[in-house]
Write a structure and sequence with these properties.
The structure holds two protein chains of two kinds. By secondary structure, chain A is an all-alpha fold. Chain A contains two helices and one strand. Chain A has one domain. Chain B is α+β, with helices and mostly antiparallel strands. The chains are: A mainly alpha, B alpha+beta. At the A-B interface, helix 1, strand 1 and helix 2 of A face helix 1 and strand 9 of B. Strand 1 of chain A pairs antiparallel with strand 9 of chain B, so a sheet runs across the interface.
């Protein structure tokens, strides 16, 4: 695997880990908030969907921001597209 | 295939996999989901053993009438681990009863009773409020749900 492929794979793995962590954090927060039916079952159904959304968000941010952080022009001379 | 094309292809495939996984999860959720949301009042669909509470929204309070004929205003008394069914109506304009801790929301519409079932599994005091702007004292349409053991 080339470096760029390893990089994207690592983005994917990082975002999946973030999604799994988000799943458990959401479960804990929902259990604090909801106290009965229909709140508890509805939140349990929503939990993996929201966690997937958070994982997709993490992947998108990593994917879009990496080239900017890595290769972006860092001087303060205004727009420079050279 | 040079490395640039391969990288571009990898980008496309990874994005497609993530998007299709998200879409797949959504489809599974939508198709397999039994919703417990408010519907039009229908006594035949009240779950067996469920206690019916008539709820009337009016400018600007909520009135709860229990099966024994008693009623309370802006305070809802319920017992833990007991199933209840709200039958909700409005006397004047459209109101919307929200109990955030239950994830329960039901519209109070004049001439169109709605119905929703719920149960509570934790003793305590929880807020409810009207979340449909219904006039100048809309903010007064709030109270507490007292859950007894």
């Amino acid at each position: 695997m080339q470096n760029i492929e390893k990089l994207i794979t690592s983005f994917l793995i990082i975002s999946i880990v973030i999604g799994i962590v988000a799943y458990f954090i959401l479960g804990f927060l929902f259990s604090l908030h909801f106290i009965g039916v229909p709140g508890v079952p509805a939140s349990q159904e929503a939990q993996p969907i929201i966690a997937t959304g958070i994982a997709a968000m993490a992947f998108t941010i990593l994917f879009m921001m990496y080239p900017v952080v890595k290769f972006g022009v860092k001087n303060d001379e205004g727009d420079d597209f050279r | 295939m040079n490395s640039k094309t391969r990288t571009e292809l990898l980008y496309v495939v990874v994005v497609l996999v993530v998007l299709m996984a998200a879409a797949g999860l959504n489809i599974v959720y939508v198709l397999g989901h039994e919703s417990n949301i408010a519907t039009a009042k229908d006594p035949s669909t009240v779950p067996a053993g469920s206690t019916v509470i008539n709820v009337t929204g009016y400018q600007w309070a909520w009135q709860f009438t229990y099966p024994n004929g008693t009623s309370s205003t802006d305070v809802l008394w319920v017992h833990v681990n007991t199933e209840y069914t709200f039958q909700v109506i409005s006397k004047d304009v459209i109101h919307d009863l929200l109990i955030p801790a239950l994830g329960l929301q039901v519209y109070a519409v004049p001439g169109h009773p709605n119905q929703v079932s719920f149960s509570v599994n934790k003793v305590g005091s929880y807020i409810f409020e009207c979340v449909e702007y219904c006039g100048e004292d809309h903010y007064l349409m709030r109270g507490t749900m007292e859950v007894l053991s």
